[in-house]
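Q: Here's a chain of 138 amino acids. Please give me its 3D structure as tokens.
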Amino acid sequence: MPNRAVRTTAAPVVGFSTGTKAPLSQAVVHGGVIYCSGTGPLDPRTHTIVSEEFAAQVRQTLANLLAVVEAAGGGKDSIIKCNCYLRDIENFPEFNKEYRAFFADCPSFPARTTVHAAPPRAGVLVEIECTAAVVAGT
């Protein structure tokens, strides 16, 4: 069963430094499972950080992640596991508030790991990657 790379303009794809193309796919689908690369708080059109405010960055990051999951054939309810990276662990309570609100309409929360780490781009306060299931019929 071959891998299928996913690409959508509804979420940003950027290089790790100015003028470089990232050596990754936004997601790869294999055997009904969607493996999403880490995404951050970038505007899909301008590729700039949406805000210096942490909560706004979390909301944009989750929107970008969902756009990739949907382009791959999944949905918010099909997200199985999230790995979350926070630049400042002091933001953990605020992260939980935004994360909870994002998944509030789902029957359950995804499994999750959250760690304190420095995302590779200056100004990025949060990065999230996930694993999701392809929804039947897509």
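Q: Can you summarize the key feature?
A: The chain has one domain: 4-133.
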